[in-house]
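User: Just a sanity check before I run the rest of the batch. Below are the structure tokens for the first item. I only need the designed sequence back.
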């Protein structure tokens, strides 16, 4: 039986979250910079059950993430059917030389966001503290009936 949270979203178990993260995509990594939160896009892949991210040397993420608590989120939504999922991971990011599994280097150059190439830094984030939610697609958005009768 599926577990649901207080908002009616399906609570995903660890295995379901890993399966959703298995396809490399873009997520968001939250760090602190001068005591303020900063959320930036980052390409990621799985290395075993750990997330690995490649960022530019000298970038805010390469300076602010290693050895500190960070938060990561990946999601996929269907705006037409109001469905989708999200997975959030919290933990201490670690700077690593390279991922253990060299097959997980699927994404392009580090400078892909800005079009320039920079030396790369690899970050690893364990998925020990991970939560996921799924919003099942609705046949009709709850507000669509109210809008169409006005």
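Assistant: Here's the designed sequence for the first item:
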């Amino acid at each position: 039986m599926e577990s649901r949270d207080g908002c009616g979203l399906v609570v995903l178990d660890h295995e379901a979250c890993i399966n959703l993260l298995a396809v490399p995509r873009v997520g968001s990594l939250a760090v602190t910079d001068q005591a303020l939160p900063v959320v930036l896009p980052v390409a990621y892949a799985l290395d075993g059950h750990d997330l690995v991210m490649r960022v530019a040397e000298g970038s805010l993420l390469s300076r602010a993430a290693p050895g500190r608590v960070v938060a990561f989120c990946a999601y996929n939504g269907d705006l037409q059917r109001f469905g989708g999922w999200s997975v959030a991971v919290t933990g201490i990011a670690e700077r690593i030389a390279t991922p253990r599994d060299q097959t997980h280097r699927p994404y392009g150059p580090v400078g892909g966001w800005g079009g320039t190439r920079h030396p790369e830094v690899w970050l690893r984030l364990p998925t020990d503290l991970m939560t996921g939610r799924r919003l099942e697609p609705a046949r009709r958005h709850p507000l669509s009936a109210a809008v169409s009768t006005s």
